[in-house]
């Protein structure tokens, strides 16, 4: 008697599930079709104009009259959250219209174990209007408490505090809060001044199933991130991390999405190893989100870890931008991390562009994403200088951006990942 290995059995079960689902109708996305006319708006052209004169500016300026196409190199980070409420339907549609070839859903679970799109399991108090809905605020892990006696206002609301049905009654808003608020309504404010509330009118929150349907029907690729739980696991005693990781995969299969169009992500290395073993069709394109070099002085150990990832069969590594660049005598160059990843044959996807505000402020005050090159970047046009190094010298195969127009413009000018 031949006993099938767990990975083979899981693959067979996934195929059976897909066959069963083929007889049912997946979630609809309101008749969406692939976008034929990509629209970038003025920002990338402003960035080109703002560049110092030189070969890069000349090249990018030569592309100003191009008809832009969708690019798989341009990955939407939470949609178009520079200006739209993150993970709202409106945010994802904005990113798709700006030519993002890959849309992201950060996957979290509700109290009734439904999967929804939220950047953090416990960010509803800063990204939605939940604290201003008394019956839902009361269910929060920490209901809103006003600022008083010199102490700031506090709240903590998690997707696992409420059901899917309750979640769908929320309005998405720009991420932010007012720590000096004395009322729930006032707490909702606090959008950074380099973003905008222009489109923060009541963004449509999305479930993972809805996001899969939208992305699929737009003809784009998917990159769902399994968010690290902020509640004790197993949740309510029996919902383990592996069940959570497998549920995300099962939901993708149910939506009839081809594994080759999916790049699953996680900051938890055990999730990556689980997918590599249990669901290899998805595991082979899994992105390990590497934050092991965040602590001061820890980047060398993060570089050393890359050999283990490659040995374990990881194909894609996804560090933040600051891991990949360095300042060498006033010039932006690939870092030791970038060089080692390239040497090992790891494919690199990085995050997150357009998440730092005005570059003049970055130069003056510092910023996580630009840390090693703070002294080199001085104005907004330098965003394209960074992108140029990431593509030409580091060789990244994708860039997450809060405003996809910027990465789409660069990709079109250099012919990267363009949709035929």
Helix/strand class: alpha/beta
Low-pLDDT residue intervals, each spanning 5 or more residues: 6-24
- Main sheet: strands, sense, barrel: 9 strands, mixed
Q: Helical percent range?
A: 25-40%
Average per-residue pLDDT, rounded, comes to: 94
Overall strand count: 15
| Quaternary structure annotation | single chain
Distance between the termini: 49 Å
The portion of residues forming beta strands comes to: 15-25%
| Alpha plus pi helix count | 17
Rg, alpha carbons: 22 Å
Shape summary: globular
Please describe what this structure looks like.
The chain is of the alpha/beta class and 420 residues long. The chain has 17 helices and 15 strands. The strands form 4 sheets. Strands 1, 2, 3, 8, 9, 10, 11, 14 and 15 form a 9-stranded mixed β-sheet that branches. A two-stranded antiparallel ribbon has the order 4-5. A two-stranded antiparallel sheet has the order 6-7. Helix 13 packs parallel to helix 14. The longest helix has 16 residues, at 6-21. The chain is globular and about 60 Å long. Residues 6-24 have low confidence and may be disordered. Residues 72-388 form the GP-PDE domain.
Secondary structure elements and their pairing?
Elements: H1 6-21, H2 43-50, H3 55-61, E1 71-76, H4 89-97, E2 100-109, E3 115-117, H5 124-127, H6 134-137, E4 142-145, E5 154-156, H7 164-167, E6 171-172, H8 184-187, E7 203-204, H9 208-217, E8 221-226, H10 241-254, E9 265-266, H11 269-278, H12 280-283, E10 287-289, H13 299-311, E11 316-318, E12 325-328, E13 331-334, H14 336-343, E14 347-353, H15 359-365, H16 382-394, E15 398-401, H17 404-414
Parallel strand pairs: 1-2, 1-15, 2-8, 9-10, 10-11, 11-14, 14-15
Antiparallel strand pairs: 2-3, 4-5, 6-7, 12-13
Helix pairs in contact: 13-14
């Amino acid at each position: 008697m031949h006993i099938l290995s767990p990975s083979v059995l899981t693959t067979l079960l996934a195929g059976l599930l897909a066959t069963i689902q083929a007889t049912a109708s997946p979630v609809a996305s309101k008749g969406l079709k692939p976008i034929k006319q990509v629209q970038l708006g003025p920002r990338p052209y402003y960035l080109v104009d703002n560049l110092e004169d030189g070969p890069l500016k000349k090249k990018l300026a030569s592309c100003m009259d191009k008809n832009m196409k969708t690019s798989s190199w341009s990955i939407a980070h939470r949609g178009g959250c520079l200006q739209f409420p993150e993970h709202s339907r409106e945010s994802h549609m904005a990113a798709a219209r700006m030519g993002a070839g890959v849309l992201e859903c950060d996957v979290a679970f509700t109290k009734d174990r439904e999967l929804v799109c939220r950047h953090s399991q416990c960010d509803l108090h800063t990204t939605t209007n939940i604290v201003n809905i008394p019956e839902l605020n009361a269910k929060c892990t920490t209901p809103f408490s006003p600022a008083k006696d010199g102490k700031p206002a506090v709240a903590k609301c998690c997707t696992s505090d409420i059901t899917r049905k309750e979640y769908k009654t929320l309005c998405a808003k720009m991420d932010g809060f007012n720590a000096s608020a004395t009322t729930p309504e006032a707490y909702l404010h606090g959008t950074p001044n380099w973003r905008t509330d222009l489109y923060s009118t009541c963004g449509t929150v999305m479930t993972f199933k809805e996001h899969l349907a939208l992305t699929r029907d737009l003809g784009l690729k998917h990159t769902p991130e399994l968010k690290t739980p902020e509640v004790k696991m197993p949740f309510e005693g029996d919902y383990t991390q592996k069940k959570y990781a497998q549920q995300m995969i099962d939901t993708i299969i149910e939506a009839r999405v081809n594994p080759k169009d999916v790049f699953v992500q996680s900051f938890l290395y055990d999730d990556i190893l689980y997918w590599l073993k249990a669901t290899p069709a998805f595991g082979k394109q899994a992105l390990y989100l590497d934050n092991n070099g965040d602590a001061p002085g820890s980047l060398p150990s993060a570089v050393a870890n890359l050999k283990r990832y490659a040995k374990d069969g990881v194909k894609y590594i996804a560090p933040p931008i600051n891991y990949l660049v360095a300042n060498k005598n006033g010039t932006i160059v690939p870092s030791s991390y970038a060089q080692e990843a390239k040497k090992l044959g790891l494919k690199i996807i990085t995050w997150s562009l357009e998440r730092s505000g005005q570059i003049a402020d970055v130069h003056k005050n510092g910023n996580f994403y630009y840390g090693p090159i703070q002294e080199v970047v001085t104005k907004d046009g330098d965003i394209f200088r960074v992108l140029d190094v990431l593509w030409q010298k580091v060789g990244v195969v994708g860039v997450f951006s809060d405003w996809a127009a910027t990465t789409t413009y660069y990709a079109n000018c250099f012919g990267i990942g363009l949709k035929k």
